[in-house]
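Wait, can you check?
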Amino acid sequence: MYFPYFIAYMLAGFIISLAVLFWALRHGQFQDQERLRYLPLADRSHPSAIKAGRLNRLEGYLMLGLACAGLMCTAAVLFFTLWRWR
């Protein structure tokens, strides 16, 4: 039937999730949790502008590409499911 498509879809999502988790751990996204809980309470009238470097733009494009790949996988699974269902 169409179970291999769902298994491949779930496996791809799991691998992408693990890759994003390890990226976040390597870049220190989960450090200093005590300070971060009070950030919404900080009084900032003028937030400082962060200049995006080439690496930050590259990471943004990579995340956009991963999101598009996930949407394409979802569309492919739906297409093959409905195609085989007829």
Summary: The first helix runs from residue 3 to 26.
